[in-house]
Amino acid sequence: MPNQQKIAVDVKGAVKRYGDFTALEHVSLSIFDNEFFTLLGPSGCGKTSLLRMIAGFEDVTEGEISLFGDQIANLPPHKRPINTVFQNYALFPHMSILQNVMFGLEMKGANKADAAKRATEMLELVQLDQFAQRKPAQLSGGQQQRVALARALAPQPKVLLLDEPLSALDLKLRQEMRFELKEIQQKTGITFIFVTHDQEEALTMSDRIAVMSNGRVQQLGTPKEIYQAPKNRFVADFIGETNLLDITVDEINEGKALCNIGGGYKITCDAVESVNVGSKVHISIRPERLSMSTSGDVDNGSLPCTVYENIYVGTDVLSIVDLHNGPRLSIRTQNSDKGAADVFDAGIQAFVNMEAGAARLLVD
Questions:
Q1: pTM value?
Q2: What is the largest CA-CA distance in the chain?
Q3: DSSP states of 339-357 as a string?
C-alpha cells in the first residue's frame, strides 16, 4: 500500500503550452510514496505531456512540480532520481541483456563488477537471469519489456515512469505483464507512475487513477471509486461500459432525485449538488447492475422490455433490450449455470430489474 504520509510527486497548477496549443491546463495532484499511480485517458488528453514534465523532457510552462518536497523544475533529466520505461523499450541491439541492464549503472560511475552484480539482481527480479547473455532480438516482446524494466530499476530511482509500456504486446501477454508489473512495484517499493489509454489496465493495476481529458484531470480516485462513482459523463462513458441515459429531474426529495428516462419510466437515484428540478442531465447504469425476469412489479421499479439480441462474449452474455416506448439498455449476465436462466431469447417480453443504488446521476 502507498505511504500516504509522504508525497513522492507533487504537481501544483501545472500548465503546458506548445505555441498557441494548451496540452495541460492547471493540473494539480499529489502522488504518494510507494504508490502505483496511473494517468488514464484517450490520445491527446495531456497524460504523456505531464509524464514528460515530471521526467524533465518537457519544461513546465506554468506551475511547479516537486519530488519528495524538492523543486525539480530546473533539474535536467539526468539529475532527477527518476527513470522511464518507454513504449519501444529502446534496448541496444548489439549488447547482451546483461550489458543493457549494466549500461545505465556504468554511466552513473559504477564499476563493472558492481554493475554486473546489480544487473543480475534485477534480471532475477524480472525472471530473466537465465537469458543474461542473449541479445534483445533473441527475446520475445514481453521479455524485452522486462529487460527495459530491469534496466530502469537498476539505478534504484525514487520514481519510475512507464509510458504505455504494454501497448505493443498481444492481449494475453499484456494481461500477464499487468500482474508482473504490480508485483514488482510492491517488491521494490518504488513509486510507479503509469500512462495508459487502456481502462482495464488502469483498473487492475492501480492504487489510484487520474482520469484525464482535454488537458484536465476529470476525476482522481481509487479504481473502485472511479468505476462505481464517476463524477461526470466523460468518466462514466470512458471507464468500462455503461448505459448512459438522457434524463430530466422531475423531483428532488430528501437527497433522492426522481429521474424521467422517457417512455413514461422513472428511476430514483441519489441527488447531487447543482442539479435541480427540471435539470436535463444524465444517469449512468452499469450493465452488470441490471437483470431480467419474466415477471416484474412496475410499481416497484421493474421496467417492461423486449429482448432485441444476445451477444455471447465468453465470460458473460450481453443482452440488448428495448424498453417499451423507451430507451435501449445493455445488460450483462455472468456466463454460468445460474446466470443462464436469466438470459432470454430475442423477441421475448421481459422485465428489467435494477440493483439498489445502481443509477448514478451525472452533472455533465
A1: 0.90
A2: 77
A3: HHTT---TT-EEEEEE-TT
pLDDT tens-digit series, residues 195-205: 999 999 999 99
Question: Tens digits of per-residue pLDDT, 147-186?
Answer: 989 999 999 999 999 998 887 778 887 888 888 889 989 9
- Cβ contacts of residue 125 below 8 Å, gap of 6+? 150, 153, 184, 187, 188
Contact 157, 78 (CB under 8 A): no
Percent of the chain topping pLDDT 90:
67
pLDDT at 286 over 80: yes
The one-letter code for the residue type at 332 is R
How far is it, in rounded angstroms, from Cα 249 to Cα 253? 11
- Residue 337 confidence class, pLDDT cut points 50, 70, 90: confident
What order do you get walking across the sheet with 3-18 strand by strand? 21-33, 3-18, 62-67, 70-71
CA distances from 187 to 121, 126, 153, 336 (A): 13, 11, 12, 36
Q: Flag whether pLDDT at 79 surpasses 60.
A: yes
Q: Is residue 14 scored above 90 in pLDDT? A: yes
Q: 106: which residues sit within 8 A by CB, 6+ positions away?
A: 112, 115
Alpha-carbon span 190 to 8, nearest angstrom: 10
CB 16 within 8 A of CB 53: yes
Q: Write the burial class of residue 189 (CB in 10 Å: 0-12 exposed, 13-18 middle, 19+ buried).
A: exposed
E strands, the chain, where? 3-18, 21-33, 36-40, 62-67, 70-71, 82-85, 159-163, 191-196, 208-213, 216-221, 243-253, 256-262, 265-270, 280-285, 290-293, 303-312, 316-323, 328-334, 349-354, 359-362
* Residue burial 26-60, b: 16+ Cβ < 10 Å; e: rest: ebebbbbbbbbbbbbbeeebbbbbbbbbbbbebeb
Spatial contact of 56 and 76, defined as CB atoms under 8 Å apart: yes
In contact, 96 and 170? CB cutoff 8 Å? no
**29, 278, 328 from 207: Cα distances, Å:** 14, 38, 34
For residues 115 and 108, what is the distance between their CA atoms, to the nearest angstrom?
10
Q: In terms of Cα–Cα distance, which of 298, 338, 297, 340 is closest to 319?
A: 340
What are the DSSP calls for 142-186, one per residue? HHHHHHHHHHHHTT--SEEEEESTTTTS-HHHHHHHHHHHHHHHH
